[in-house]
Amino acid sequence: MAAPTWSWTLSASLIVTLTLTLVSVAYGNSEGDALYTLRKSLSDPDNVLQSWDPNLVNPCTWFHITCNQDNRVTRVDLGNSNLSGHLVHDLGKLEHLQYLELYKNNIQGSIPNELGNLRSLVSLDLYNNNISGTIPPSLGKLKSLVFLRLNNNRLTGPIPRELVGILSLKVLDVSNNDLCGTIPTSGPFEHIPLNSFENNPRLEGPELLGLASYDTNCS
Ligand SMILES: *[C@@H]1O[C@H](CO)[C@@H](O)[C@H](O)[C@H]1NC(C)=O
Ligand SMILES: *[C@@H]1O[C@H](CO)[C@@H](O)[C@H](O)[C@H]1NC(C)=O
């Protein structure tokens, strides 16, 4: 009589435990899934992403990842890592990310609009890559941003006016791209030195404003 009850209780509690574990793994690793999507989109000849195992509970033990006390990702440090390939829009899911460091690689393609969702971001360093397309106006939503370095890429189009609203911005560098239009002068741009804009043949400096004819081809 006792045996069937015992085994029923055992399997019921096993099912409950299993369900709870699956739910917590699925929830806990959504940031790991986003980063694993990035890994799959990159070519990594030096195997710097080898420890990025999506089966772990969270990505906090992966190399080049830093988490806070709640196991949420705060840093991605992959500068100078010989990576090529593309960025992914899933990066926009890392709500607590403060530092996205991907400088000095050979990343191609465009900057995902979704990076504008990274409300905690302090530093976006994508300089010295092979990034094309335009600077997303959504980056104007990054109200904690201090460092925005996009220099030495192949970016085109204007400097979005939305960036004028990032009052925390201290360091901006977009030199050595193919941007066009005029350089903003208000807000944080009052204190950005002109060499942060150099080597964009179609970008017109504020010192020329009175004379410059607007480049109608810049959009
Ligand atoms: C970068 O990767 C390439 C292969 O794609 C390799 O030939 C080269 O040695 C690597 N460079 C460094 C600095 O590791
Ligand atoms: C940069 O990307 C383009 C494609 O967008 C490619 O043709 C070119 O070879 C890349 N440059 C380098 C240095 O890899």
UniProtKB/TrEMBL annotation:
The highest taxon in the source lineage is Eukaryota
Question: Where is the Leucine-rich repeat-containing N-terminal plant-type domain positioned along the sequence?
Answer: 29-68
Look up the signal peptide feature and give its range.
Answer: 1-28
The chain positions of domain Disease resistance R13L4/SHOC-2-like LRR read 77-175
Keywords annotated in UniProt = Leucine-rich repeat, Repeat, Signal
- Any Pfam family: LRR_14
| Gene Ontology molecular functions | transmembrane receptor protein serine/threonine kinase activity
> What GO CC annotations are associated with the protein?
plasma membrane
Statement: the UniProt record of this protein carries the keyword Transmembrane: no
- Name this polypeptide is given: Uncharacterized protein
The record's Gene Ontology biological-process terms are: signal transduction
